[in-house]
Design brief:
membrane, mainly alpha, 0% strand, MFS_trans_sf, 21 helices, single chain, globular, transmembrane, Growth Hormone, Chain: A
Length: 541
């Protein structure tokens, strides 16, 4: 894939975050493989939009008659997410990902030669299923590999996806000829919308052109399939090299404690992703139609507006790789939600001003970019994310992606004069803004053993300060910092676990305990100095 080598280099620049230990090279290889896989996932999802008329012609149907291949793919995707969640907890991740990518390759190779619409739907649902597995598993494998340092890697994964969705239409353009529908790339993973937007291109593409370009159309599927096959070979190699690394990381993950309200948090995040991904896909799919109907733009202007949305989305995901190295996931989510609330408000009520429409679309696209990867990194700090939990996030996203665009399409059909898409964007944004503080509160409610650890720590600090009078004042500051830390920082639970482990390890050797606290303290100070946003974002005291 053209975007892939650059993508991995960009990834490599964040190497500073990973500790230099023997497994470090292997971990970077896993990240590189996952980025390559997600690039392929983005391409195979997005290639369907632009090539849709050709697929219809291939099975001898009208575009509007084969909309059910999207339904097939979405159902496959849901099934794959569920299956992936169960399988990841009981078999090797690299192996499962490699196998699912081989299945995708087989499906992509089959599609261009498929002359029967039922068979086409079956192939689509196989592809959907293996994508569901890849989506769930990629996130879990990244979490298992990097643990608390997952931030930049998670962003890089989802950035690769956006790059793939951007590259696919360039490949598929050969199948459509001309600059016929530059905006379709990114009718990313939708059901209904692609339908509407492709009907236009179906009408305009002459039969002669389609016959002439049939080979190019086959070629775009074969290229993506071959690329995925190469990535799956890389994953098979990783499987043979490093299955032990994962087993170690898995056992260490199991030692981590679940949050007090684990399932409530997972359920809220499920709903959060449903609204967020639903809104993202809906806006990306219908903004072209909106621009044509309500803003009365020319086709080229409308296409440009659509590209602005997805361009800002992809660019912001790229920037977030580096941002995640400095900002906490919670901070990134807070910034994104604020931006999406403001921009969606402007779009819902001031979109009749051209400037407001263009700026609002760009800001809205950028604000959507980091929420999904940051959400997964954020929840990982408070509780253990296993295959089943991760599959719930992916299922929530997939349901949002199926239901919200379909609902908007239906309502827009009923109420022609109301810009349903803009109100949907605003309402979804409002829902996410309400949900996140609730999740934050739940995640930070302390467990009994944490409270006990805090009091143990204070007792221990008192003992130590008695033995070292000179450090009395310092210890006072330490306690102050500790309290601020508990209130303000997003990693509190994780730190408590580390602290608890170090206390347990050295409970019989109090003198050796002090260096452990010493090594934690500078980190606390740094964090408190460097993250005013986090402190400001904390709930009122």
């Amino acid at each position: 894939g053209p975007g892939e080598p650059a993508e991995e280099e960009e990834e490599e620049e964040v190497a500073a975050t990973g500790p230099c230990q023997p497994g470090a090279a292997l971990r970077w290889c896993i990240t590189a493989a996952l980025c390559a896989a997600f690039l392929g996932l983005g391409m195979s999802i997005a290639v369907l939009g632009p090539t849709f008329p050709n697929l219809a012609a291939n099975v001898g149907k009208n575009v509007s008659e084969i909309y059910y291949i999207f339904v097939g793919r979405s159902l496959g995707y849901l099934g794959g997410s569920v299956l992936g969640g169960v399988l990841f907890d009981c078999m090797n991740a690299s192996l499962l990902l490699a196998l699912s990518m081989v299945a995708t390759t087989a499906g992509l190779y089959g599609i261009p030669w498929c002359k029967d619409s039922v068979l086409l739907t079956a192939l689509m649902s196989v592809i959907g299923g293996s994508m569901g597995i890849l989506d769930t598993g990629g996130n879990v494998l990244a979490l298992n590999t990097w643990g608390a340092e997952v931030g930049p890697h998670m962003q890089a994964l989802h950035f690769s996806f956006a790059v793939g969705a951007f590259v696919a239409p360039i490949l598929a353009k050969m199948a459509l000829g001309g600059s016929e529908s530059k905006e379709l790339p990114v009718a990313e993973k939708t059901n209904q919308s692609v339908l509407k937007s492709t009907q236009a291109s179906a009408a305009s593409a002459t039969q002669a052109l389609q016959d002439h370009l049939e080979e190019d159309f086959l070629w775009s599927y074969v290229v993506i399939g071959t690329y995925l096959l190469l990535v799956s070979l890389f994953l098979f190699v990783l499987y043979s090299k490093g299955s032990s690394a994962r087993d170690k990381s898995k056992t260490s993950a199991e030692k981590g404690k679940l949050a007090k309200h684990h399932w409530a948090l997972i359920g809220l995040l499920f709903t959060f992703f449903l609204f967020y991904v639903g809104a993202e896909v809906t806006y990306g799919s219908y903004v072209f139609t909106y621009a044509r109907v309500f803003a009365e733009m020319t086709e080229n202007e409308a296409a440009a507006l659509n590209s602005v949305f997805w361009g800002a989305f992809a660019a912001c995901r790229g920037v977030a790789i580096f941002g995640a190295a400095f900002l906490y996931p919670g901070t990134m989510i807070t910034l994104s939600l604020s931006a999406s609330a403001v921009s969606s408000f402007a779009l819902a009520f001031f979109a009749h001003y051209r400037a407001s429409l263009w700026v609002g679309t760009a800001v809205y696209g950028a604000s959507m970019a980091t929420v999904f990867p940051s959400g997964i990194s954020w929840i990982e700090q408070y509780t253990v994310v296993e295959g089943k939990s991760a599959s719930l996030f992916v299922i929530g996203a997939a349901l949002g992606e199926m239901c919200i665009p379909a609902m908007v399409g239906y309502l827009q059909g009923r109420f022609h004069h109301i810009p349903v898409i803009m109100y949907t964007a605003f309402l979804s944004s409002a829902m996410t803004v309400i949900l996140f503080p609730v999740m934050y509160k739940l995640a930070n409610s302390p467990r009994k053993e944490d409270l006990k650890v805090v009091s143990d720590t204070e007792t221990r600090k008192a003992l130590l300060s008695n033995s070292r009078f000179t450090e009395d004042e310092e210890d006072e500051e330490d306690k102050e910092d500790g309290r601020e830390w508990n209130e303000a920082d997003f990693e509190v639970i994780e730190m408590n676990d580390k602290l608890k482990n170090s206390l347990i390890d050295t409970s019989h050797k109090i003198p050796e305990d002090s260096p452990a606290q010493g090594s934690l303290q500078p980190h606390l100070d740094d964090v408190l100095d460097n993250s005013p946003v986090v402190a400001d974002g904390s709930p009122p005291r």
